[in-house]
User: Fold these one by one.
Assistant:
Number 1:
Amino acid sequence: MNLQFLVFVTITALIALLTWWQCRGARHSADSNDEYFLAGRNLSWYFVAGSITLTNLSTDQLVGMNGNQMLLLAWWELAAVVGLLILAFVFVPIYYRYNCTTTTELLEKRYGKQSLRSIVSVLFLLGNVFLYLPIMLYTGSLFLKSMFGLELSTLAIAGGLAALGSSYAIFGGLRAVAVSDTISGIGLLSLSLLVVWLSLQAIDFDFSGIPPERLTLIGAPESPIPWPTLFTGMLFIQIFYWSTNQTITQRAMAAPNVGEAQRGVIAAALIRLLIVPAIIVIPGICAYKLFGDIGDATFGTMVGAVLPGWLSGAFAAMMVAAVLTSFNSVLNSSATLYVIDLHEPLINRDVNVQHLNLLVSLALVITALLLVPVYDGAESIINLVQQLNGLLSMPILSVFVVGLVFRNVAAGAAALALLSGVMLYAVFTFLWTPLHYIHLMAITLMVCILIALGVNRLLYGRTAHFSSREDRLGPVAHG
């Protein structure tokens, strides 16, 4: 344990040192918002790819998906490739044409209303504060406890992770976040592939004795991903997450031009296709044969079993780095949304961005820590995350779809559809669940779009028209 801890501390410190070394000579922007939230709009494609990969790939994926202990969960990552390609070839050119800093800025420019932008920003912030940030801290703490057998409480470990992770976002901005993501990503992906190989060796590459339903990609009706859902809500979930979610798109917006951003996103898609599916399902399947159904403790248990002591310390450092990079990425994007979308236009445009970023980030960190105990003991953290995502994801996506696909739609109609969608999915989740939640996400999206178009015609007396490609790529406010 002493050797493990020494390796862990050394690698964690080395990542911080390399991040500082890489960032110290970077060219800085005179615009405070661009500097803190878009790395001076100067991120190279490999930092875009690395940051996108590690922002998404954290303990909620490695712990949560391996915790299901079935091959079926690979569909989340395979479908993500499609979402990333849509980001690269559809949304990136639009964001750059509109010179966006936040995804919600696109909504203001398409609909011509700040109020709609503010509503969506608040919903994004609520999702980050109540879902993503505390779950990242919880799953990171759970991994460390199960791997090292720590006696500390989950909340105590989460506090340490939060302090380390927030330092990057608070003091270094997006540039430090992206650089640390990339450095950590190289180590995490390499060691994760080693864990895959050693896990297969541990069962002698023999999958006999594992139930067939854990080895199939064709999901049964009662499985986490029934196969028909691949053709309904799955694609829309990926479009929302990869193309409209501020945490992901902010990395692409930070490149100097469209081409550099697209190269970074495509590289992230290749990593997602070739590497990520294996590392999020194979260790879990192997663990089922060795240890049985042990849920979200699977990944930490497997890593501790197959890696030698000194190397498990290195892997723990990489996992903590993944937690930190994902946590500080969401933290940085949350501060971006608050400062640019809410504080500057609604409270005070002339602010000290560095000071405000510090205060907002600290408030978000404290709130996330207080919420960590809420998720302690969840049966399957990844399924819980995906299900609760629908409360915000599909209603928000509907606003983007309507704003880009149609013109002459009133912002009020889109806002009413957005709020109606949140209520509809809440009914589906908590009161009446007639279908699998992925199907219900697709239904929620379609209902929201129909409500927006219907309200636009009946209450605002406007007729929506399809937008041309030239219209989508040029600033057109609807009012």
Number 2:
Amino acid sequence: MASQRIMLIDNEAGLCRMMEAVLKDQGYLVKSFTRPVQAIAEFTAGDYDLIISDIKMPEMDGLEVLQHVRNRDPEVPVIMITAYATVEMSIQALRRGAYDMLTKPFEPDELIYRVKNALQHHELVEENRDLREELSGQFKFEKIIGASPEIRALLEKVAKVAVRDTSVLITGESGTGKELIAQAIHHNSTRRNHRFVAVNCGALPESILESELFGYRKGAFTGALENRKGLLEAANGGTLFLDEVGNLPLSMQKTLLRFLQEQEFCCLGDTTPTKVDVRIISATNSDLSAEVAEGIFREDLFYRLNVINLHLPPLRERQDDIPLLATHFVREQNVKFGTEFKGLTPEAMEALRSYAWPGNIRQLCNVIEATMAISDGNFIGLPELAQLIETDKAGQSANQADYSSALSRFETDYLTRLLRKHSGNVEDAAAEAGMNMATIYRKLKKYGINKKEIEKS
């Protein structure tokens, strides 16, 4: 787990250095500023977990700093520091969104205590918000688009599996919607009021994956400066989804098997077992039976995970669902971008149906988004589609270079127009696009879009 990041703003250089040293000793990543104007110029949403700012400063006082921070990132906690605390000032700061007030002079222990409180409170707020968002967006079966016999048979099986609290292995090619099925199982089970936690077993190195799953105790390894819960403990009472479970290293397979047998595990650096109640749903796009035969996946773990198997057919085997999916994605993009596309021309729809879709539903969604970006009329036609997939030879691979290029052109053009519309104001642009500010900043950096030039234009 990455160290938490703190921005420190105080025009007293000596006090700033003292606070920075104290916080760094606690393992925090600290960037300090003695000029608030410079700090605000460098601040972007998502870069910091906590802001600490003095109130009485030249150029810009702390309440102005607080307002600028709140405008860009409404969630990050802010601690205000002052030597002239009054009831009126405290009320004003708290009304403007400050989390806490710290009065000078203060001891290092008090600073550490306030900082830990603010960060823990922020983590709790984020966890509760994530849970509310999950529960408010319950994955009912209408979220899974399809009317083909294959998908109807699958959903009937999912409905029966959901209420039985046992391990499920979901198989299928990449992009077929395995995580969506896992979420549907969770949200239609008795565990629906607890968390659904997903981890991609193929995306993390073995050492990081072990600490992410099982957590660690302070001092367990270099950089373990405090106790940290793992994903298994975070999912207590709910569901843990292990995506690409076939990529688990053999050592981790042994540890996971023990957990499935005992429903308990030991954090790194701890000898006392932690007991949790978690349902395991796993998914893979590889042939685990073959991996068992080759000795790269444990047979006993395979049988533990594969109590119930759900196989998702590739999109090429459910051609009747392609028009439904395409229409759904067009509707989603219309809502997201305020467009009024009516659908696809008959020729374009036939091209979609005859294409092999090696990337399955995920690829279809991306192709619809990109073709809507480069189409001039209200219908997606064959010429636009031909820039992204082979339309004359069914079963050929997608022209990924053309697709990536079209998507890049779309995002660059869309972000530039959006920012120009809002005079470079990223917060307003993010609100209209339904994206968070940190995502927009990442895309600006990815495509080399200069926000300041847009502000001048």
